[in-house]
């Protein structure tokens, strides 16, 4: 029975450590997103620092929102991810609005076609 209590104590210590690590991760996330305007679903997709690049943007989420209505979601998401990684910005909405991200709008393929969806 003594071994069971020891295992139970170890289990609670592990849970406490995991909760502590989660709290630290959430605090870091809140600190990293201070520069991003969060006023709605679409406004969180593009930078709101008036020309200064944002170094941390959730490209996976931003591109999922940008490509959610695309007929070829995998192609759209892959291209958007490349553009987001380079520009640290994704325009709001599912189409257009590229004036919100000039770098995103300016990227071209080798055939001089727009690279970013």
TrEMBL record:
Specify the domain of life of the species encoding this protein. Eukaryota
Q: Give the keywords, sorted.
A: Signal
Q: Which InterPro entries match?
A: GASA
Q: Which Pfam families is this protein grouped with?
A: GASA
- Matching PANTHER family: EXTENSIN, PROLINE-RICH PROTEIN, GIBBERELLIN-REGULATED PROTEIN 9-LIKE
First and last residue of the signal peptide: 1-27
Q: Mind telling me what this protein is named?
A: Gibberellin-regulated protein 1
- State the family named in the UniProt similarity comment for this chain: Belongs to the GASA family.
Q: What taxonomic ancestry is recorded?
A: Eukaryota, Viridiplantae, Streptophyta, Embryophyta, Tracheophyta
């Amino acid at each position: 029975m003594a071994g069971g209590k020891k295992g139970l104590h170890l289990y609670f210590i592990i849970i406490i450590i995991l909760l502590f690590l989660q709290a630290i991760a959430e605090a870091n996330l809140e600190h990293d997103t201070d520069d991003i305007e969060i006023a709605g679903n679409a406004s969180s997709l593009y930078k709101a620092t008036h020309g200064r690049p944002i170094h941390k943007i959730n490209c996976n989420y931003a591109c999922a929102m940008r490509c959610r209505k695309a007929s070829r979601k995998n192609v759209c998401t892959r291209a958007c991810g490349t553009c987001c990684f380079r520009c640290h910005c994704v325009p709001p909405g599912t189409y257009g609005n590229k004036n919100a991200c000039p770098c995103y709008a300016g990227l071209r393929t080798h055939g001089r076609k727009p690279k970013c969806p």
